[in-house]
């Protein structure tokens, strides 16, 4: 088995693109058994099915067969089992306990789309059970969880893809943005601004009976035992069909106990592209400064003083001092996307547009042939799952590897710690710890609830 950390991405993607073109994919369990069949498709299972769980599953049926689903909500589980059979004509088994999935020898990889506070436990246990892993972003709830996942990837040699899909999708717009920078179209970068939207607080949310079919204790898992809360108003649009205000379902992103608010949600996308463009995927900032922020509830010693309202930031401006003293600004103001400013110009990129004079100049002065592929490391995969499956065949890490993701996500985690404590943090990117602040360093990890510790 090759080294789990990518040593030559160009060679890796040339190999995996060839695998994708021929359809020659070998699942990890097959490799273990020493069997190689050009007709074999990898066998997947999805853990966590609501919204994004079904989204990544439905995109992946082109490349893999799904043998099992797991979800702690019986209604969500049953609904998605039916959708899979309708889409593929094949039935899958359903489980309320994800460990039943990990016990199966016929499953090569798992796709994890649970709330964030479950990601690390399931990911680690899946790798130790011999499964490759595709896990949604943000990968972790704390910085130390990221370090643990890195150790287990290295220990087991499993292939691990993080769901930061902007690296492959959105019409290659973000790859083109990085290619512009590498070709010197804006000169030396002097500032990067990531607009990731603000959020709203909530009314007081009462404790009510748990909805029928939902195993609330399992949903909480490693998090502290608390009552289920919800108001009757329902959410519309994406994430609809659930209460608008709750500590479960779609709104768990607004609670530090289960996620990191907008900082870890949109931040995990745009800060990822920003650090990639800066060439800082193997390093990090030396300082995080909370210039301004608003929290929806009162805090004391870094913890909310009430437990019946959303508690993640609603507005913020964070400055991360990146290598070369380049400021990386993360803000809730302005357009959602990334503004790159250099000594020779500037441009803006998001999922809908790539604009600015350097972009307009491409009409008369296009990028060199292969510039986008050079950013990616080879031919760009059809989508994120194609890249993952090809990496499973090559046994090398995919485009969204855990190391670059964790380095980027450390910025988002540190920003949240700085907001919670209301002060600037000095960060040692080599030791990966906060300098001279024992209280802040305590936020780098969390204690799992008894009975839900990581099984190692």
Describe the structure.
The protein has 456 residues and is α/β, with parallel strands linked by helices. The chain has two domains: 186 residues, NAD(P)-binding Rossmann-like Domain (Rossmann fold, 3-Layer(aba) Sandwich); 184 residues, no CATH class. Helices cover 33% and strands 17% of the residues. It contains 16 helices and 17 strands. Strands 15-14-13-7-12-11-8-16-17 form a nine-stranded mixed β-sheet. Strands 3-2-1-4-5-6 form a six-stranded parallel β-sheet, sandwiched between helices. The protein has a two-stranded antiparallel ribbon with strand order 9-10. Helix 6 packs parallel to helix 7. The longest helix is centred in the last third of the chain and has 20 residues. The protein is globular and about 60 Å long. The N terminus is likely disordered.
Count of all domains:
2
Task: Output the CATH class name of the largest domain.
Answer: Alpha Beta
Q: What integer is the average pLDDT?
A: 92
Instruction: Give the CATH topology of the largest domain.
Output: Rossmann fold
Radius of gyration: 22 Å
Task: Estimate the global geometry from the Cα principal axes.
Answer: globular
Q: Structural class, judged by helices and strands?
A: alpha/beta
Portion of residues within helices: 25-40%
Contiguous uncertain segments of 5+ residues: 1-38
CATH superfamily of the largest domain: NAD(P)-binding Rossmann-like Domain
